[in-house]
Amino acid sequence: MVPPTAGPSKSANQPLHGTKRPASDANNDRDEIKRVKMMNARTILSQPSESSLKQGQLDVGAFVSSRKYEIQQLSDSMRKSKAIQKQQTFQVVPRSLRRRAASHHIRFLPPRFREQAQQEYKDSGIQLTPKKRRRITRLHLRRDTALKLKYFARRRKAYHCDRKRSTYPVGINELATKVIMERKFKKRQKDKTWLPTHLWHAKRAHMINKWGYVIPSHPNEKCFRPTHRASQNGSGIVFDTSYYATMILQGQHDSLHMAVNIISRSKACGKTYLLGDRAFEGPIYNDSNNDCAIGEAVIYFEPTAELGDGLANKCRRVLIRVHPAAFDETWKTLRALVTETRERELDPDPDMELQDCRFAIGSIDIFGPKSLKVVGHNLRLNLEKDVTVHQAWSMATAAGDPKLIPLGAVFPLGFFDPRTISTPSRDRKVATWESRDVSKQSLICKSLNEMARHLGSRAPSPLFTTQGRSIRVEHAKIAHGRLKQRRAANSKAVDAKKSSQILLKKETLVFNDDVSIPAIMIRRANGAISLLLPWQWVAIFFKKLVLPAYTIYGGLQQYHQILCERMLPYFPDDFPGTPAGQVEEREKMTQREKEWKSRPRSKKIIYDALDLRNGEKKGEVGNPFACDWRYLLEADAIAGYYPPNESANQQDSSSTGSNAPWMITDMARALSERNKLRQNLMAAVFTVQIIMIGRGAPRPSARIYGIPVRDRSKWMQLKRNRKIVPGSSEYPVCPKRDYLIGFVTSGGFNLKEGKGSGIASLSWAKVEQNGGFNYRYCIVRDVGERIGRLALYKPL
């Protein structure tokens, strides 16, 4: 036993009160105090036992009293040591469940932590302040009764309106009526549309108004690195993408074939696409002869058994999904094609129609290497009797990796109500699932191909028809009491059949009125899995998929981040050659200019005074707030940037001029036919990947220069000699504005690659003037900086 250690003594060299000490000294003092406190708590005081020995004889009373003191000190030391290391309940709440006022009252904690927190309050002697209750009078009772009657009358009216409405609105050859998600918040949806998961996201994420919808931008908690982990190494990240516009084109097979052939330039008319085995994903164009793309779309034909002459006059449907920024242009193009087909003199199709299903069909996107496993463990397939499909689905969900699914594969599925299925435990980790066996990859791919072919030859998905979606509206509004009974019955069934080797045995009780919820699963080109569902079922499926602890949710920023890490373009930001991309760039330019004006002069960059030290006059190249394509594409562009009060007007006028950029979507065709298209390629731009060589991370609107032939040896030294840093005499200066070839549209530090990367658009004519397409090195310079950095670009 040792005597207690003395507390920390104040040093003579300690700074006086009011003087600021370095952060490292403060941290060291805090660690020393904690160390001493822990040592004092673990020190056990003792009493010498020599006093109990008198002339070689033991005094029993004195010996017992001395041991009693030591036992008491031992118990006190154990209690103090445990109390020091103990954390309060509000300190162990997961980050995703923390609230600002969680430490002040128990009711702000999650339900499973409240009992423990209440015991802590009782042990510490803290009395909880009860909620203030108002004095109840007869006038208050009358007023409350009147409010309740008014509320129930409004609920009854809304209920009968919903019963009369068979499904959510669908416009036939006209735009659909906007849907109202929650009638008590009807005034808030006057100028915008809520997503099916709006009430869930509004409590957890920052919402923005964009493209006529209220869309989650990013979660309220920090999520940059968790997004990277979930999409690259974790289980998955879930997005509500119901803001994507869905249209269904219905008519004779030949009419549909002609319309799809026009908007896709014959790319979506292959045999696999016409049979419905695969979904086409790529650029679409208007019906004019120019090569200007509208945007990207997913085109999926209704499945059929075979192609032949008997299919020419058969009625079929085509599902087309586009980004909301490109919906207006796509709708006008398809509407013109439908009108032309119905009114043509030779072989007209009077039954051809275009359906606006924006508020009838929603979608959920899932990213991650185990996204298939997340779907398989949280949803139950309503195809148990089909042995072929069931075996393939079980093997696919056991593998979990969506890369094993063929690109564009489509699975028309049917699911049971997710609310009647027990959810996997939040405490179990996805790592406890079986790992994928590499030797079975070929077998899994083969079974998935068979599953896709087998499902494609089946009857078309009810999601194509209004009746198939409307019959399940009432089932989505199941009473809470009956749903609670089903959950209790299902939990008993699961507890009875659980196995120790399996994380969850999904067993459910099928009732007579249970129906199959139609869904279409598509393997996307960006690596995601898209689930197309009826609009009223999106929120139910989304909550089921995001409820387990191993999955997270995201917004627009997280979607953009994932595509940037995979070096894929994000629509519409990385498509400046489309009308939607130009509108997006103008909005961002206005926002950056507004932020720049709001800062004081000492806190912002003065672009007029920027000196690149390359022999040209001072000033930023082009408009510093945007990717200035007007400056780049005009041969007689004036040096310097536009004044802030004139930039918006000039940019608006430039978008409608002859020098507006247009997008090259087929790089190989453009290179082979460059002599024929030379006149049109003067204003053409193409998308590339930017990979930084060395340090630096490109930001949006960064300038990209071609390397002059005389300076290539100097810039290549940076690749070989990393000791040459910016600011040294050997570091080369940035090229002149004549060598400007493009702009960075998306960029930053790539956690997947461990260095800076981005997506950029380059001018075809400027690249040809500055070295051609064989030399792939370039210089990237951020806006407001005079230092350029070496990078490599790769065309997409």
Question: What can you tell me about this protein's structure?
Answer:
By secondary structure, this protein is α+β, with helices and mostly antiparallel strands. The strands form 5 sheets. The chain has a 6-stranded antiparallel beta sheet. Strands 14-15-16-13-7-17 form a 6-stranded mixed beta sheet. About 35% of the residues are buried. The model is unreliable at about 1-20, about 425-440, about 500-515 and about 635-655 (pLDDT under 50).
Shape annotation: globular
Report the end-to-end length measured between terminal Cα atoms: 73 Å
Report helical residue fraction: 25-40%
What is the averaged pLDDT score? 80
Strand order of the largest sheet: 3-12-8-11-10-9
Strand count, sense and barrel status of the largest sheet are: 6 strands, antiparallel
Number of beta-strand segments: 24
**Which structural class should the secondary elements be placed in?**
alpha+beta
Radius of gyration over alpha carbons?
A: 33 Å
Share of β-strand residues: 15-25%
What oligomeric arrangement do these chains adopt?
single chain
Number of helices: 23
